[in-house]
Amino acid sequence: MKNTPRIYLLTLNSPSRRALRLWTGRSVHQLRHCSAKQIGSALVEMQKNVDDLQKHMKTLQQVKAQLASVAPAGGG
């Protein structure tokens, strides 16, 4: 169960409170406010996920460029 992805929800200027709040949980139904200690680790985890996504996007862009540079087979 430890590999279950975490869900993060960031709220800005909610009607009840004028503050930035970070919620986290294993599912939408289990969201809880992050404590001050949890916010730091949550931000580190989110940054890692962004870095991984950027790495994958760069790989996809490189593959796309390589495919575009290859001439179509059987040039007619």
Description of the molecule:
This protein is α+β, with helices and mostly antiparallel strands. The chain has one domain. It is 45% helix and 16% strand. It has one helix and three strands; from the N terminus they run βββα. It has one helix at residues 36-69; strands at residues 7-11, 21-25, 32-33. A three-stranded antiparallel sheet has the order 1-2-3, with no helix packed on it. A hairpin with a 6-residue loop joins β2 and β3. The longest helix is centred in the last third of the chain and has 34 residues, at 36-69. The mean pLDDT is 77.
Set out the fold topology.
Elements: E1 7-11, E2 21-25, E3 32-33, H1 36-69
Antiparallel strand pairs: 1-2, 2-3
Quick summary of this structure?
By secondary structure, the protein is α+β, with helices and mostly antiparallel strands.
Count of beta strands: 3
Mean pLDDT comes to 77
- DSSP strand (E) fraction? 15-25%
- Major sheet summary line: 3 strands, antiparallel
Helix content bin? 40-55%
Report the order of strands and helices.
EEEH
Mind telling me the C-alpha Rg?
20 Å
